[in-house]
Amino acid sequence: MVYDTHNIFAKILRGEIPCKKVYEDNHVLAFHDIAPKAPVHILVLPKGPYKDMDDFTKRASAEEITALFRAFSQIACDHGLDQSGYRLISNCGINGGQEVPHLHLHLLGGTRLGRMVQAG
Ligand code: AMP
Prior knowledge:
120 residues, HIT family, subunit A, 5-stranded antiparallel β-sheet
């Protein structure tokens, strides 16, 4: 499957749609999820055109991969989650329940989170 340049996160990255930005560097953008599932629910994405984690790990440069992982801990610290804890989720493909075909990780925290997986 080729990368769909019309997906909503591609439009946010191009500045065509607004977002509530919390973090940005050369390779990463992070913003608040529009429908938060926890007191803190931030989406963290690479700026490059990667449709999911599988695509990213195969094609991204070492610099892009490092930037994404460093961003998680930076954002967690910025929101006071490094002490209380948090969860990172990346939905991948149909069975993963991915809705937007641009790689993003959900950074969730601010409360005791429930069960990790609920099928169905
Ligand atoms: P996923 O199911 O992993 O693809 O998650 C997509 C996420 O994007 C959902 O949690 C949506 O609430 C969120 N979302 C969709 N549109 C926007 C938007 N314009 N700004 C922020 N978050 C969005």
